[in-house]
Amino acid sequence: MLGMALTRETMLARMLASDPAYDGRFITGVVSTGIYCLPSCKARKPRPENVVFHATPDEARAAGLRPCLRCRPDDFYLGYHADEVLVEGLASALTLDPGSYRDLGALAAMAGVSLSKLHDLFRKHYHTTPADFLARSRIRAAKRALLTTERPITEIAFEVGFESLSTFGSNFRKYSAMTPQAFRRWRTGPVFELALPGDYPREVILRALARDPPGPTARVEGHVYTTALRLGEARVVVQVSLNGRTARCAVSAGAGLEVGQRLELHGRLLGLLGLHADPLRFEAQVGREADLRPLIEDRRGLRFPLLTDPFDALVWAILGQQVSFARACTLRFRLVERWGQPVAGGLYALPSPEALARLGAADLLPLGLTRARAETLIGAALAVADGRLPLAALEAQSVTRIERLLLAVRGIGPWTAHYVLMHGYGFPDCVPLGDSGLGESLKRFFALGTRPTHPEMARLMRRFAPYRSLATLRLWHHLTQPSPAGSQENL
């Protein structure tokens, strides 16, 4: 007897979609081969009549089945994920000392895998290529060195692994939207400027930043975006002026920021402005397919702006579960006004996880939350506060680990988890299956007779891999005007 409220049809659909979000919720048994698998197994799919479902590996073994050697379900249930552990170890090594790895061959040799396996590992667990991860690691190390030392820029460039100053400069501008010289000059000042690309959709980004009027944590006036941010224990107000080809960023008490806070602030603003990821490769991929090309023809350069941090994304996602965007805005306004921290100019910083964890469901019910959603929000905040869900530390971890930890929190399902992965961490290959706006957009874009089911959505979105987060954004923008209630376009 399965110990979860899932129908056979649902389990078959998730098994056929190889959905990792359902790993741990049931076991797929294949009587024709005598093996049992995780729902996410990538092996050839069996005929439905040959499939039986079990609650646990123990139950599957009792039925005479043996574990699959490809997806290794027993390892999963023991909490061991070999590939994940391997690639996270590689990522940690690159982060700590990127200059020690002059090329990807050296990294693959250290890991004992082929270059193709190395590529697959980073694609699955970090949604990027090993080359991109290495370049970003080098730039992160260079940024810290620029802020903490007086060493020449050339010396720093070679130390972090670049073979020429020109390559270092171009990569620094690509990943930081600043020159190394300008970044170093920002060590003590409150103002810095980010370079905007020529196709930067300023008006679209400003509309996205102003999606919650009158937002308690941010506002847009003309081309100026002002927001309150938490940087560790500090609360600051940041004013971003989008003028021409630059974004001028002025920080209250900016001169007093510590190195770690400056690095965090720079990364947050890159994400807020959608400068953390270039859409060029996505546009090139989609542009090669005639039936997909309309998705980008009138929106070249569209980027995915992130929320202020992963906890902000988690709060938005929980408040937005199965309600309209307008309702989510109202709930967030009441929450921040009641328990947020006043900063300046009428703005509030989002309540900390610790502050929300101290509340009871009865405290949130007067705001308009249902008891279930209030309990989910408090439970999630408690998980962040006590370290079971360390959202900030998880930014260096794999998408598979973050998703698993999110799904372990009561009340958080795949839709909420993917919302956080997309809007909080910026992972580029997520799909919020079940989102009503995305389903309607896919129906209209592909001229379907009915809104696609979860498996059909997964199949349609597979064509956009490995850029499905950005494809989701394009579909929302391209086809939901006005957006259907509940669409994540506004969330």
Molecular shape: globular
* Distance from first to last alpha carbon: 38 Å
Tally of helical runs: 23
Mean pLDDT, nearest integer? Answer: 91
> What's the story with the biggest beta sheet?
5 strands, antiparallel
Q: How many β-strands, per DSSP?
A: 11
CATH top level of the largest domain? Answer: Mainly Alpha
Low-confidence stretches: 482-491
CATH topology of the largest domain: Endonuclease III, domain 1
Helix content estimate: 40-55%
Content of β-strand: 5-15%
Radius of gyration: 23 Å
The overall number of domains is 3
CATH architecture grouping of the largest domain: Orthogonal Bundle
Give the structural class. alpha+beta
Pfam families: Ada_Zn_binding (PF02805), HhH-GPD (PF00730), HTH_18 (PF12833)
Catalytic activity: Hydrolysis of alkylated DNA, releasing 3-methyladenine, 3-methylguanine, 7-methylguanine and 7-methyladenine
EC number: 3.2.2.21
Organism: Deinococcus aetherius
